[in-house]
Write a structure and sequence with these properties.
By secondary structure, this protein is of the alpha+beta class. The protein has two helices and six strands; from the N terminus they run αβββαβββ. A four-stranded mixed β-sheet has the order 3-6-5-4, with helices on one face. Strands 1-2 form a two-stranded antiparallel ribbon. InterPro entries: Glyas_Bleomycin-R_OHBP_Dase.
Amino acid sequence: MPLDRMTLTVPHAKRDAITSFLATSLHSLSLKEIKRPLPHTVGLGEETAPYFWLNSSSAEQVRRFHAAALKASPTYNDAPDPRPQYYLGYYAAFVHEPVFGINIEVVSHGAVK
């Protein structure tokens, strides 16, 4: 199974060492440290735009999330749809939160439309 996303919990005293290692190691993949939103949190990635994702258990949940988000704000990034460019079974919707423009993705892995 390919790595989708990862969270590491490390002691505060070791945070800078692991961040340095990962940033150096992953630089060849165009990943770098992009933010430290909290003292104990480091974001590595390609993008600098605020972004987070949630896993859902079905394509139906993805569609319900998208419909609810459109009721809350008419701004969305991309409608619920399969994303075969990522891999077969990846089904997601993207919305922009209206205050800060945070991109929120809800994804179901292995979903069928």
